[in-house]
Amino acid sequence: MRKYAYGFIRGVDAVNHRIGRIVMYGIFVLMGILIWSSVSKTFFMPSLWTLEMAQFAMVTYYILGGPYSIQLGSNVRMDLLYGEWSLRKKAWVDLITVLFLIFYLGVLLYGAVGSTAYSLGYYGSEPFSFFGGLITGAESVGRMETSPTAWRPWLWPIKSVMILGIFLMLMQCISELLKDVLRLKGETI
């Protein structure tokens, strides 16, 4: 069991580390979009797509960078208390709180899958079977949801990024849970 836990931890941490290191440069994409927005509004005809594309870039940056942030331990903690605790007490508190986070991310992932299915034109109540049907050819994409803005982009790409980010965050939280259990058993990670 311990061998599998270490393998899972190494695998998830490696994937989220690589994705996080790549996505952290997404801030420059966001800056480029906002600079273009300022330039186009000042010297040319204002672009319709810049504000919404900046929002999409920020969502991608935030949601795909979240697992890396959790891995580094740079998420917000109450350091007034937490910083003075022993490693064992920190592991117990982290273990309990990460269980709540895993439950929350599970609910969030279920909602994201349903929302993405809706954006692809599925209006039923079984979004997972819809995606299974898309893979097997039993289902087809319907009328795709678009944003209500003047630019009107499809929403399924950003919702798919959200599914990926929430899934990666869920995997990172499970990795952190396993690390806490191993720490409580006296192992160093």
Automatic annotation (TrEMBL):
UniProt organism field: Puniceibacterium sediminis
InterPro entries from the UniProt entry: DctQ, TRAP_DctQ
Ranges that cross the membrane: 21-39, 51-70, 91-113, 154-174
One Gene Ontology CC term in the entry: plasma membrane
Keywords recorded for this protein, A-Z: Cell inner membrane, Cell membrane, Membrane, Transmembrane, Transmembrane helix, Transport
Family from the record: Belongs to the TRAP transporter small permease family.
Listed name of the protein: TRAP transporter small permease protein
Protein function: Part of the tripartite ATP-independent periplasmic (TRAP) transport system.
GO molecular function terms listed in the Swiss-Prot or TrEMBL record: transmembrane transporter activity
Residues of the Tripartite ATP-independent periplasmic transporters DctQ component domain: 30-181
The keyword Protein transport is annotated on this UniProt entry: no
Subcellular localization, as worded in the UniProt entry: Cell inner membrane
Membrane topology: Multi-pass membrane protein
Main location: membrane
Cross-referenced Pfam families: DctQ
Binding partners and assembly: The complex comprises the extracytoplasmic solute receptor protein and the two transmembrane proteins.
